[in-house]
Amino acid sequence: MKKINSRENSENDSFKRDHILTKLDPSEIWDVIIIGGGATGLGTALDASSRGLKTLLLEQADFANGTSSRSTKLVHGGVRYLAQGNLGLVMDALKERGLLINNAPHLVKMLPFIIPSYKAWDKYYYGIGLKIYDWMAKNLRFQKTKFLNKEETLSHLPNIKTKNLNGGVLYYDGQFDDTRLAINLAQSAAEQGAHLLNYFEVTELCKDENKKITGVKAKDIESGNLHNFKSKVVINATGVFVDNILKLNDSSKIPLVKASQGIHLVLDKSFMKSDHALMIPSTSDGRVLFALPWHEHLLVGTTDTPVEQHLLEPSALDSEIDFILNNLEEYLTRKPSKKDILSVFAGLRPLVQPNKDKDKGTKEISRDHKLTVSRSNLITITGGKWTTYRKMAEDTVDFAIETGNLSKSPSKTDHLKIHGATEKVTGNHLDIYGSDANLIMKLAEEEPRLQEQLHPEFPILKAEVVWAAKNEMARTIEDFLARRTRLLFLNARAAIDAAEDTAKIMADVLGKDSNWQDLQIKKFIKMAQKYIPEPYNPVTRKSEEIESK
C-alpha cells in the first residue's frame, strides 16, 4: 500500500494541529483566548480574528462535539418563538438566516415546510402567523407562505394520513449541516489568523495580584503536556459547560445555565417520501416537532427534557424515543417503531437560568443569549441558538474589546464568506465541502484506492477520511464518522461497520500504530452502540470480529 504523504494536497498549515503546536510561544500575549469550540466559540474566533485581534481557541474535545453537532439542522427564525411573542428574537434570527445563506451557500439551503390541517381553522390560524413570519424577514424572505388544499398537501406529503385532512400551509425556512458549518467556521477563523486547537482542556484560570484574569493553563489531551497561555481577555463560550469554567473562576458561583435535553431519531426516507419537511405545530407536550429530509434520510425531533447532568455524550431516554414515535404516528400512514430507527442522538441546550423562578420548565426559558463579565474580567456568553451564532459572536467581541481595552474595529462577519463558500451545485454528496470538493476528488484521482466507498450503502469516499485527517483536524475515527461526515448520526450500525477501514486510513495519515487503531475501534463501537435504541441493538458480524481481537 502506498504511504499517504500528509504534506500532499494541503493548502496551508493554518489549520493543522501539529503545526500550530510548534508555533505556540509561551511568552506571547493573546488579545483573546476563547474556551469552547462549538458554534458560539468558533463564531467568536472568526469575528475576533477578522478584526485583527490575536486569537486563540481551545476546545476540550472535538469542534462541535457537544450541542452544536446535535441540532435539528435548521437555520430559522423560530416559529414557536413567534407564537410566544418573542418578536425581537425572531427578527434577529430571520436576519441572520438571510446572511448565513449568502455567506455559506454550500451548506445552507432553503427547505419547504408543510403544516397539515386537520381542523377547520388550523390552516388559517397557522397561515396568518406564517404570513407575519414572512413579513418580518423583509428583503431576506425566501418565498411566500401559501395555503394548500387537500390535494396539493397530499401531492407534497403523500405519506400523511388523509382522514379529516382539509389542506395545509406551505412555508419556507433554512436547513444546514451543523458540524460541517462548524468545521468551515474553524477553517475561516484560521485563515483570518486565529489559532484553534481541539483536545485542549483548560484546567485553571491564571490571575494577577489584583485577582484579574491574565490567561489560562491548559492540558493537551493527546500528549498530556501542560501549557500556559497569557491573554488580555478570556471568553467562556462552553455552552452547557459554562458553569464548569465559572467554578474555576469562583467556586461559590451560582449556576448560570439550566440544561434541557433534546433528541432526534433518524429513519429511512421511505417513511415520508418527500423533499418537503413536515412541521407538527403542537405535540402532546405543546412543543413543535419536525420531520425533515436530511442526507437522504428522515430526521425527526426534538424533545425537551430537563436534565441535571451535563455530559459530553448524553443518551436518549426511552420515554423521549416513545414521545417522538407516538406523535409522529399520528400523522404518517406507515408507523415507525424502535426497530426502524437507524440512529438516535441526544444533545443538551444551554438555557439561561431565570433569576426568579428557578423551577420554571425549560420550555419557557429564553433562548436569547446572555453576556456577563465577572469581577476578574472573565467574559461568559451563553444561551442562543445556531442561527444567531454570528450575532452572538459580534456582541461578545464588542464586549471583549471594551473589557480588555483592545484595539477597536467593527465586526466584518455579516458579509464574510465562510470557507468553502460556493453556489456551484453538482448533485454530488461532496457538495457539502463546497470549493474543497475538487481537492478531495484530486486526492481520489491520485490514489485509486481512495475512490472506494467507505461503506457500500453510503457514498462517502475513503479520500474523505484522508482529507479530514490532513485538512480538517480530525484526530479520532469518531471525529470523522460523527462530525466530518455524519455517518454515525445517519446509521449507527453502518458507522460501526466502517470503523475499521476508517482507523486504518487515519493511522496511515497521522502516523499511528496498530495499538492506536485497536483502541480507537473499540472505543468507537462502545460509544456508537448508544445511538442504537435498546432492545434492538444488534452488533454486526464485522464489529463482533473487531471486538474479539
Automatic annotation (TrEMBL):
Residues 31-359 form the FAD dependent oxidoreductase domain. The keyword Flavoprotein applies. One of its GO terms (molecular function) is glycerol-3-phosphate dehydrogenase (quinone) activity. Belongs to the FAD-dependent glycerol-3-phosphate dehydrogenase family. Keywords: FAD, Flavoprotein, Glycerol metabolism, Oxidoreductase. Signal peptide: none annotated. It comes from the Bacteria. This is FAD-dependent oxidoreductase. InterPro entries: DAO_C, DAO_C_sf, FAD-dep_OxRdtase, FAD/NAD-bd_sf, G3P_DH_FAD-dep. Residues 379-514 form the Alpha-glycerophosphate oxidase C-terminal domain. PROSITE patterns: FAD_G3PDH_2. One of its GO terms (biological process) is glycerol metabolic process. Pfam families: DAO (PF01266), DAO_C (PF16901). The keyword Oxidoreductase applies. Its cofactor is FAD.
